[in-house]
């Protein structure tokens, strides 16, 4: 015991005295003179070198002269034969890193060491040479280095290989010549040599995909000794996998078995590396993912913090793309919330937030509340961001989450943290209407005690926009006016503007607001006074309740509607003169930024920094852009702008993409063009659009782009007219036409890809906060249900996302995520269809063992007449063309999807054809007494036709075929044909679309040759009913009448005949009151 | 790349600082960042218990050994697991040189040796030697025994 005490005492004394206490650079440099002694004292020299190292490691620097002096002195130490001193000499030379003109002093000594019989001399000499020499010397020593790489002493080999890795950066062409030796070293029995050799070999060959692929194939079959090398190999393997699948290689994923095998390696490092490689495979399936997740889950409960960290970090990443795959780890993850290491805890929390289900939100939030108090701000920001995404995913939980955010808003925290919270609340208010009132009140509470001027002003601005629209705007006034009393001038000025907005927008508050504004006239800051004066005088200064002039409101609170940069330039260029500055003189043209600038300003503003429209901000920008163009300003409200569709391949001379802007009666294509040829300036850039495959569209206007310089994107527009409210679709071919300035204005063309306007372009992604309520409120009356077979698909998930993409609707309540391995899934979608029709869709998917996917689609919409519903349904089949409903049309269904595993390569799968036939428009409605009904319709609207049905199997078969074809209700049991009868009469009744009652008498006769003849008599309530049956017959006459422009009565007789191969001939006879009376036309179809 | 090896005493004074591929102007920032990280988290941590953090794409693994704290910073292939391998080599080499988890005094007494060890372990940002016995021989310019 006494001994222990003594030891402790010793240590205290020891600690007080440091061998380097009071060390001074000058003194040490003096001491370095011992290096010049003729009789070297190795021990003393080593001590001095240690001191020099200590100084250098403390960040001390030597002047050029000092360094040179020490370096020259050190070179003398090569004379000593003491091993310890020599080792120190090698180190200090590297640390001193002498300049190139001094290096020459030691190179001969080092070269000598490189050829020394003592292995370690060789190794160290190589490393020192690598550190201090440039490329010129490399050619001289290349021969020795090649030998060193294959040296049997692993220390020498490693030294040469690691030096090779460094030299590769400065002298790649020399190092690349060593690949044979390096290849040999890869087979070395020493683990570390193999590791270093593999690293160097890969770097030498990294640009040669085939060589890397060969390297990986050979090594994955052989043995790799060191775990470090194994990790490298796993990385290279996943690189090969990535590249091979990019080349469109299909079938089994190469090397997956190798990666999977590494999951059973004995070194944790290798297991983890393999697991991470698997999770990062693109288009990884849940089957591939499962073993990796399992080992990561084991790591979560490891005693080593590094393993826990690595595992949770990887799972966090997986949760972004495959949240369901990670849910199995949730229990282990929850225990990590209390982990000592805050990095691990934060990662665990954010992962749980991504993978949790709606039911678990409350419990999770309780746990997080305890956790938040003891982590640093940067971790808190991560958590706040995760909570915002969670809230948008589960809008029903906004109360819990909003409460949490408001609680942490009240606690201590720095600016960035507070800003993150405020931004999140603002985003939630914008996206979830129900959250608005409570959210605004939380923000009001916050500004009562907010130390950040920036946040206060931003919140006041936001309050001014959103507050007046709430049910009781008056409750916010107190908070705003408090700012006028309590805060600094900047915040006071903002508060005055916010008050004025309330005054202008809410008439009932106006008189009281004016009282408050008048008080601000005595503020001691001139900006505050000025603002108050301006508002008082513009918004009806007398304070009485008057309708504030729209122009005034627009002037005070509307957006400037022109680019601020342009305004700034115009103001700078304005020279004081008689003529006042006019806003009208400011150009409205948006100057596009060169890419380099855009990248610099890459960080997207979110929350308060973004324009108030929040998520629709791109639509806003587009809307402003389009309304600024006079040709398009009359098109009305912009309904939807699509995401850009690329019309050129990557890395071509000109990059063009198109954004489809949908208006009620118009479609505007915005072509974003970029010129990637530095020498060229393009002028008068237009797009020539061929709309021959888009029948309903008519080109209206084109807005060319005057000039398109290098690397500065520009836009050109083409507008089309289309029938109002109709979801017209079509295909457009495009050619880029321009003048190249360098070639003396030579006109040139560049072929672009085609694109299509598809039904989903007419669908806006608009979420609903509570799908069930919304669904019930629309009611089953407006529901349509259909079932579809989607054929064999890669996975259920892929099928779900393909259909979601096709419909272009917003997935609700997180139902776009498909649980791994599930056999069925229900997905809820919502959207707004053109014409402002709300549409909800429920998709139920089921998958069979053969990977056949079946889908049931239920649509409900606000509108009975719902074109929308019909369109959604047809979209469900693929891209169908919409047609006039009564036309006899045939559809080829083509399911188009992007296969994820093929890196987004578009693929097609041919489905069977189906037909919409006339009988689809016929309701089977029976009559109780056919004869009475027949007589009551009278012979005026009767038509009779005779048909030969050709040889048939039996009379019975012929009768039922015709009944099936007509889709009508047989009456009085006449569908039953007596056995062996030679003739039969069948009575049918039905209601045709348009609520037209139709009766049919069919008389059949059969000859001995089994030829069946049929006489068909139709009577209908309406003349138009004559169309019906005719469609099924082989010939038909249709009577049309109309009044032509100029009040000319026109009668038309159409006679159709169908030949064997469905060739249709039509004879058209027109009679009109006009003299140009009769025409005959034959249209073969 | 192994960006930095930093060893500090318990008060946060730097004992050894070796940077690779870190520009001069950023070194001071890294030094104060690491020391603060240690001050916040290393209290009460057992010898050689590893702590881990990440800052953007850079990983940090750090620990306590006796009276000194050791920090390793890496990026790309030197992620948390590679760094933990490297820090294990560093701590075992230091223990080997000092004979036990060092006090600051002991560490400074063996300063030259420790510098040599670090030179053998991490060289210009790459992990070179990982076996402590071999390192022990190499710093005396003795050839390794195991080949």
Kindly describe this structure.
The complex is a heterodimer of chains A (1085) and B (147). Chain A is of the alpha+beta class and 1085 residues long. In chain A, 46% of the residues lie in helices and 20% in strands. Chain A folds into eight domains: 25-98, no CATH class; 108-206, Leucine-rich Repeat Variant, CATH 1.25.10; 208-279, no CATH class; 460-559, no CATH class; 613-757, Immunoglobulin-like (Sandwich), CATH 2.60.40; 759-916, 2-Layer Sandwich (TATA-Binding Protein); 917-1033, TATA-Binding Protein, CATH 3.30.310.10; 1035-1085, N-terminal domain of TfIIb. Chain A is extended. Chain B has one domain (2-138): Beta-Lactamase, CATH 3.30.450. Chain B has five helices and seven strands; from the N terminus they run E-E-H-E-E-E-H-H-H-E-E-H. A five-stranded antiparallel beta sheet of chain B has the order 2-1-5-4-3, with helices on both faces. A two-stranded antiparallel ribbon of chain B has the order 6-7. In chain B, a hairpin with a 4-residue loop joins strand 1 (2-9) and strand 2 (14-19). The two termini of chain B are 28 Å apart. The interface between A and B is large, with 65 and 52 residues. Chain A: It comes from Artemisia annua. Chain A: GO terms for molecular function: structural molecule activity. Chain A: Keywords: Cytoplasm, Cytoplasmic vesicle, ER-Golgi transport, Golgi apparatus, Membrane, Protein transport, Repeat, Transport.
Tell the overall outline of chain A: extended
Instruction: Give the helix proportion of chain A (percent range).
Output: 40-55%
Bulk shape of chain B: globular
Number of domains in the coordinates of chain B?
1
CATH superfamily of the largest domain in chain A: TATA-Binding Protein
Q: Please report the total strand number of chain A as a whole number.
A: 29
- By CATH, the architecture of the largest domain in chain A is named 2-Layer Sandwich
């Amino acid at each position: 015991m006494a001994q222990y005490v003594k030891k402790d005492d010793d240590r205290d004394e020891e600690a007080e005295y440091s061998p380097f206490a009071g060390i001074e650079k000058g003194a040490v440099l003096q001491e370095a003179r011992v290096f010049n002694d003729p009789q070297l004292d190795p021990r003393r020299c080593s001590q001095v070198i240690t001191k020099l190292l200590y100084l250098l490691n403390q960040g001390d620097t030597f002047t050029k002269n000092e360094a040179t002096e020490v370096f020259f002195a050190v070179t003398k130490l090569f004379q000593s034969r003491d091993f310890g001193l020599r080792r120190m000499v090698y180190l200090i030379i590297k640390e001193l890193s002498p300049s190139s003109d001094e290096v020459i002093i030691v190179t001969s000594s080092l070269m000598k060491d490189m050829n020394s019989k003592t292995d370690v001399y060789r190794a160290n000499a190589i490393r020192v040479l690598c550190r201090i020499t440039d490329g010129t010397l490399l050619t001289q020593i290349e021969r020795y280095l090649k030998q060193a790489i294959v040296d049997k002493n692993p220390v020498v080999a490693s030294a040469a290989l690691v030096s090779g890795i460094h030299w590769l950066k400065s002298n790649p062409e020399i190092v690349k010549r060593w690949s044979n030796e390096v290849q040999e070293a890869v087979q070395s029995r020493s683990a570390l040599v193999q590791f270093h050799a593999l690293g160097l070999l890969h770097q030498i060959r990294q640009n040669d995909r085939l060589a890397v692929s060969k390297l990986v194939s050979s090594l994955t079959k052989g043995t790799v000794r060191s775990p470090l090398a194994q990790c490298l190999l796993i990385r290279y393997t996943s690189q090969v996998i990535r590249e091979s699948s990019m080349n469109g290689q299909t079938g089994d994923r190469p090397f997956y078995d190798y990666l999977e095998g590494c999951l059973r390696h004995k070194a944790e490092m290798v297991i983890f590396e393999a697991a991470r490689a698997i999770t990062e495979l693109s288009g990884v399936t849940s089957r591939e993912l499962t073993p990796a997740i399992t080992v990561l889950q084991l790591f979560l409960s490891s005693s080593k913090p590094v393993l826990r960290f690595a595992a949770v970090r990887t799972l966090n990443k997986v949760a972004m793309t495959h949240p369901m795959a990670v849910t199995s780890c949730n229990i282990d993850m929850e225990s990590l919330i209390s982990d000592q290491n805050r990095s691990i805890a934060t990662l665990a929390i954010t992962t749980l937030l991504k993978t949790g289900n709606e039911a678990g939100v409350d419990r999770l939030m309780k746990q997080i509340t305890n956790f938040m108090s003891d982590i640093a701000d940067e971790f808190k920001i991560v958590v706040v961001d995760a909570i915002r995404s969670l809230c948008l995913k589960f809008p029903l939980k906004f109360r819990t989450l909003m409460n949490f955010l408001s609680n942490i808003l009240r606690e201590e925290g720095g600016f960035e943290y507070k800003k993150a919270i405020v931004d999140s609340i603002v985003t939630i208010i914008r996206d979830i209407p129900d959250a608005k009132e409570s959210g605004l009140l939380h923000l009001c509470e916050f500004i009562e005690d907010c130390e950040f001027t920036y946040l206060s002003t931003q919140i006041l601005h936001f309050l001014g926009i959103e507050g007046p629209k709430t049910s009781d705007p008056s409750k916010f006034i107190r908070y705003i006016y408090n700012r006028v009393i309590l805060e600094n001038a900047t915040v006071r000025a903002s508060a005055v503007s916010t008050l004025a907005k309330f005054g202008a927008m809410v008439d009932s508050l106006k008189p009281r607001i004016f009282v408050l504004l008048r008080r601000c006239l005595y503020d001691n800051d001139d900006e505050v006074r000025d603002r108050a004066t301006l508002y008082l005088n513009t918004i009806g200064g007398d304070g009485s309740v008057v309708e504030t002039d729209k122009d005034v409101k627009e002037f005070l609170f509307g957006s400037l509607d022109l680019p601020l940069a342009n305004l700034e330039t115009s103001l700078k260029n304005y020279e004081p003169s008689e003529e006042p500055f006019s806003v009208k003189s400011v150009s409205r043209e948006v100057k596009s930024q060169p890419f380099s600038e855009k990248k610099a300003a890459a960080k997207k503003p979110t929350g308060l920094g973004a324009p108030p429209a929040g998520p629709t901000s791109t639509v806003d920008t587009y809307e402003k852009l389009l309304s600024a163009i006079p040709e398009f300003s009359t098109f009305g409200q912009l309904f939807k702008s699509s995401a850009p569709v690329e019309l050129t391949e990557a890395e071509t001379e000109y990059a063009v993409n198109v954004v489809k802007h949908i208006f009620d009666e118009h479609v505007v294509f915005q072509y974003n063009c970029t010129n990637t040829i530095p020498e060229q300036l393009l002028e008068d850039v237009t797009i020539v659009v061929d709309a021959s495959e888009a029948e309903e569209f008519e080109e209206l206007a084109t807005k060319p782009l005057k000039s398109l310089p290098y690397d500065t994107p520009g836009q050109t527009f083409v507008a089309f007219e289309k029938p109002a409210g109709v979801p017209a679709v079509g295909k457009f071919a495009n050619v880029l036409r321009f003048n190249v300035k360098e070639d003396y204005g030579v006109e040139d063309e560049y072929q672009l890809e085609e694109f299509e306007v598809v039904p989903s372009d007419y669908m806006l992604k608009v979420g609903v906060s509570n799908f069930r309520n919304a669904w019930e409120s629309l009611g089953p009356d407006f529901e349509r249900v259909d079932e579809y077979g989607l054929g064999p698909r890669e996975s259920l998930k892929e099928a779900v996302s393909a259909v979601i993409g096709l419909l272009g609707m917003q997935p609700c309540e997180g139902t776009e995520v498909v649980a791994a391995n599930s056999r069925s899934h229900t997905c809820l979608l919502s959207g707004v269809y053109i014409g402002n029709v709300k549409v909800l869709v429920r998709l139920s998917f089921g998958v069979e063992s053969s990977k056949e996917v079946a889908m049931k689609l239920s649509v409900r919409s606000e509108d009975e007449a719902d074109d929308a519903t019909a369109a959604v349904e047809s979209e469900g089949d693929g891209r169908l063309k919409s047609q006039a409903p009564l036309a006899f049309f045939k559809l080829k269904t083509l399911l188009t999807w992007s296969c994820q595993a093929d890196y987004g390569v578009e693929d097609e799968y041919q489905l069977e054809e189906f037909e919409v036939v006339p009988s689809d428009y016929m309701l089977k409605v029976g009559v109780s007494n056919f004869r009475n009904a027949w007589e009551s319709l009278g012979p005026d609207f009767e038509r009779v036709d005779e048909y030969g049905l050709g040889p048939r199997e039996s009379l019975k078969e012929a009768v039922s075929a015709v009944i099936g074809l007509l889709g009508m209700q047989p009456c009085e049991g006449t569908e039953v044909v007596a056995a062996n009868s030679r003739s039969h009469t069948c009575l049918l009744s039905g209601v045709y679309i348009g609520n037209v009652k139709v009766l049919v008498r069919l008389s059949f006769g059969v000859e001995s040759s089994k030829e069946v003849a049929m006489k068909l008599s139709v009577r209908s309530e309406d003349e138009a009913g004559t169309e019906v049956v005719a469609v099924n017959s082989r010939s038909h006459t249709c009577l049309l009448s109309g009044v032509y422009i100029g009040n000319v009565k026109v009668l038309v007789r159409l006679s159709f005949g169908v030949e064997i191969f469905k060739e249709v001939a039509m004879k058209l006879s027109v009679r009109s009151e006009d003299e140009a009376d009769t025409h005959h036309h034959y249209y073969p179809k | 790349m192994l960006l930095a090896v930093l060893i500090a005493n318990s008060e946060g004074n730097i004992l050894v600082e070796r940077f690779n591929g870190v520009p001069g102007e950023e070194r001071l920032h890294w030094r104060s960042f690491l020391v603060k990280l240690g001050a916040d988290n290393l209290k009460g941590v057992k010898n050689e218990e590893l702590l881990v953090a990440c800052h953007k794409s850079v990983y940090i693994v750090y620990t306590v050994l006796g009276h000194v704290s050791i920090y390793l910073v890496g990026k790309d292939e030197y992620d948390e697991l590679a760094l933990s391998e490297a820090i294990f080599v560093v701590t075992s080499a230091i223990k080997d040189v000092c004979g036990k988890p060092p006090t600051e005094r002991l560490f400074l007494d063996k300063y030259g040796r420790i510098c040599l060890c670090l030179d053998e372990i991490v060289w210009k940002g790459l992990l070179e030697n990982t076996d402590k016995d071999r390192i022990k021989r190499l710093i005396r310019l003795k050839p390794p025994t195991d080949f």
